[in-house]
Amino acid sequence: MKHPIVVRPLTTEEAPGVEAGLHSADAFVLRRCQVVRSSAAGESVMTIARGLGCDAQTVRNAIHAFNARGLAALPRGSSVPHTRPHTAFDAGQAARLRDLLHRSPRDFDHPTSLWTLDRVAEVSFAQGVTRTRVSAETIRATLARLGIRWQRAKQWITSPDPAYAKKNAGVTA
């Protein structure tokens, strides 16, 4: 059978801090102090949760935090993530990706001249820009980080006639 989760005995410095927190204007600090005081009085997690109208996991989190950090666990912590999000492309790889997009997919044995996000992901892996095959969303996010908005390709009317440019020059001018 598991032992019930309880707050550790309060030190002589912590007891006045918890009591002062019971008069805090910050609801988070107030709730944490209520949990700590109730647990120190011997109440169970479920009893505390019912009495405060919160979830039992909220009570467990407060008790574990107080046991680990003491009074430092009473105020709300930073909401900034503890780790930087992993990016599949570092600065050098992102530059290679940008250069890749300035070439035609036909250069990489694709039967079309239009890039799609999936096609970019496939070619970037095949060309060694990335170590693993990344998703189309990763490509889109990397391009957004570079300030490039991905837009659907426009259809252009062209002619296979070798003299097309010469013939067309007088019409559009």
Molecular structure report:
Helices cover 49% and strands 0% of the residues. Helix 2 packs antiparallel against helix 3 (45-52). The longest helix is centred in the first third of the chain and has 14 residues, at 27-40. It folds into two domains: 14-73, no CATH class; 86-147, no CATH class. The mean pLDDT is 88. The chain is mainly α.
What's the number of domains?
2
**Sequence stretches where pLDDT stays below 50 over 5 or more residues:** none
Measured by DSSP, the beta-strand proportion falls in: under 5%
Find the structural class using helix and strand composition. mainly alpha
The largest β sheet comes out as:
none
Question: Percent helix among the residues?
Answer: 40-55%
Give the number of DSSP strands.
0
Radius of gyration: 31 Å
Distance between the termini: 87 Å
Mean model confidence by pLDDT: 88
List keywords for this structure.
mainly alpha; 8 helices; 173 residues; 2 domains; rod-shaped
Secondary structure elements and their pairing?
Blueprint: H1 14-21, H2 27-40, H3 45-52, H4 56-69, H5 91-101, H6 117-126, H7 136-145, H8 164-172
Helix pairs in contact: 2-3, 2-4, 3-4, 6-7
